[in-house]
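To whoever picks this up:

The parser on our side crashed when reading a file containing two proteins. I've narrowed it down to the boundary between the first structure block and the second sequence. Both blocks are reproduced below exactly, byte for byte. First block:
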Amino acid sequence: MVTDWSEGASPWATDEVLSWRDLARLAAAGVEIGSHSATHPDFGRLDAAAAREELCRSRAMIDARLGFMPTSFAIPLGQSANWTPVAMRAAKAAGYDLVYAQAEETRSAGTIARTFITGFDNMRVFSAALSGVFDRWEEWG
């Protein structure tokens, strides 16, 4: 989750972003809540201090609002160019154990591949994702 968006600073309509109440309900139901940063920046462009601020602020806000410190982080934009060794060191120092990137074959060292499926995707896209069709795909590259 992007913490500033749940605080009302979302670039989209508020009904497209989960509220803290929604997130608390999900957490109570056993859903893992992880960080996706405070503001959704491109970490590939951040220096060490800015990366640390994003990572620590998001984690602290989740703790303040939901009562726990997340240990997983999903890279905003998720591509290989959006994550650097500097960002990885900042994530580890901030207390994140798992860092999720996007493509299996192009992700940065030390990250875990993630695949996301949206409400716009159909069974063909879902099946393709499961079979590895997107393992080298860089959406913005």
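<<boundary where parser fails>>
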Amino acid sequence: MTGQTRTARSMLSRGLSILNCFRPGETELALSELARRADLPKPTAHRLIAELVDEGMLERGDRGLRLGLGLFTLGTRVPRQRMLSELAQPHLKRTHDLTRQSVFLFLPDGLDPVMADGVHGGRGTSPAAGAPAEYEAATSAAALLLRAHRPRLAPSGSGRAERRAPRRATREPSSQELARIAERGFAIGRSGTGTGAIAVPVLDASGTLIAALAAAGAAERTHPVRTAAHLRAAGMVLSRALQTASGLVPVP
């Protein structure tokens, strides 16, 4: 029985590794690329993909596989993510109006930031529809922020992302750099195309980091302290709104 449990858990882990292969902005991936990223033999990947398609977690497209409607439907049932996205929208739009930059909401998956919502180009859009350089810079800033606030991450999510193979090579920051980020309260990320981003934490009543807000745009037009102040103000209002919606007393 123990051996069967280990085998079932292993197959579940392999199936999830296939779903985790998709990166922001990627619509379809070939089976061979999914197998390579998930580090699976092609026959195993083919079998698991067929099951995921049957369950609606994946769909077959013109050039490969894409995430399925069943996965989206399942994601919309996550109470905190849905609540955060709904509550964050007006604050994302207002922060965009103030900074004239794209603004994003990230949720922590261990030390991996997962983009949950965003406002790009002056209008609310799906995060997959914007400039890859902005997402890259914003994700970089949010990842640094999560590492700097590691002690404040919710225990239920800590460690999971560290056990998973990284989606792209990332430079691990030094302890001194992380200490500076924690002290000043924001992280700076950059892409290779002259795009910069600032990320700040969103904390709940107990001081646990539950999300991150990031703004991204042309690096030469980004004022770190001013942008961080706008994001921090939005984060505080969002935190209070979440506490109220959850039936908790907001922190004064």
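After patching the parser it read the second block fine. Confidence is low (pLDDT under 50) at residues 1-9, 122-130, 156-169, 247-252. Residues 243 and 249 are 6 Å apart (CA to CA).
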